[in-house]
Amino acid sequence: MESVLIVYVIVFVGVVLLIEGVYRVSFGKSISLDQRMSRRLALLEKHGSKEQVLDQLRKEAGQHLKAQSIPLYSLLARKAQQANIAFSPTALIGVMLAVTALAFVGLTVGTGVSPAVRAVMAAVAGIGGVYFWVNRKAKKRMSLLEEQLPDAVELIVRSLRVGHPFSAALGIVAKEIPDPIGTEFGLISDEAAYGRDIAESLEEFAERVDNQDLRFLAVAVSIQQQSGGNLAEILQGLSDVIRARFKLFRRVRAITAEAKWSGMFLSAFPGLALGMILMIKPDYFDQVKESALFTPVAMGVGALLVVNVIFMKIMVNIKV
């Protein structure tokens, strides 16, 4: 039993690593958030055509939300959009099916369980592995975006104060700040150069990544366009508010870190204890397996554990 569990873990980890490897091979270093040069600048350096790069980035920017009508894909679409996954929805579904098939082959080679169980576990590894990979990338990208936004707004303020127009200030941010802000603001700057309203582009960006601070930025720019005023002063005040909110979120995260880790430990402990029991004494449940009550009681305990995880997550998820 313990060897089967180990194989399941190895297959799941292998699926996640395979997806990351295919992603990096398909799109190169430009999709990495660790690069100093933004994806937009890397594509401009590679292709040289601003129109071609703009078309590609605009396609990537909205492709996942547009595919929410695909059955089951709606569960993944929002996270995929926040992560700005360069795979198209069709390609991502294809990757999901491919790694599920590979997981089934791996389970066939590594375990002797029935085909039905292998199929279910392969689907869990394939679909769950893709969701885990996308969710991890979305969290990393959104965390970086929230961290970069105050600096980006302050850079816009300094640019406005020395006489640059707002669209040019966005272009400066696109050149000076890496991804994710670099590419996103560069896309907005390019759209403005082709005549699109900047406030509209900012609002679309804010809705796409579901970020409240970006909504404030879009509203501030829209109000200034309609009623006038000193945009630099407005954005300076907004920058101070964003930075204060960011510090508050970090402080709350630090204060609640112990409670969150306690919740995670208490949620995971029953599963870890069961795994250790089966590894140390595989025949521990042999005497009760044949009982008519074993299956319903085991299912009831599993349901209670799921409810426990849900309630522990609700309790430690403090909103500010």
Describe this structure in words.
The protein is 81% helix and 0% strand. Among the domains are: 144-250, Type II secretion system (T2SS), domain F (Receptor-associated Protein); 256-320. With 320 residues, it is mostly helical. The protein has helices at 2-27, 39-47, 50-66, 74-82, 89-110, 115-161, 166-176, 181-193, 198-209, 212-227, 231-255, 257-280, 286-289, 294-316. It has 14 helices and no strands.
How many helix segments? 14
Which class of secondary structure composition applies to the elements? mainly alpha
| Proportion of beta-strand residues | under 5%
Ends distance: 44 Å
Q: Could you give the order of the helices and strands?
A: HHHHHHHHHHHHHH
**Topology, number of strands:** 0
The low-confidence runs, each spanning 5 or more residues with pLDDT under 50, are: none
Bulk shape? elongated
Output the CATH homologous superfamily of the domain at 144-250: Type II secretion system (T2SS), domain F
Mean pLDDT: 86
Please tell me the CATH architecture of the domain at 144-250 by its name: Up-down Bundle
Q: Summarize the amount of helix as a percent range.
A: over 70%
What is the gyration radius calculated from CA atoms? 24 Å
Query: Sheet with the most strands?
Result: none
> What is the CATH C level class of the domain at 144-250, in words?
Mainly Alpha
Question: Helices and strands in order, then pairings?
Answer:
Elements: H1 2-27, H2 39-47, H3 50-66, H4 74-82, H5 89-110, H6 115-161, H7 166-176, H8 181-193, H9 198-209, H10 212-227, H11 231-255, H12 257-280, H13 286-289, H14 294-316
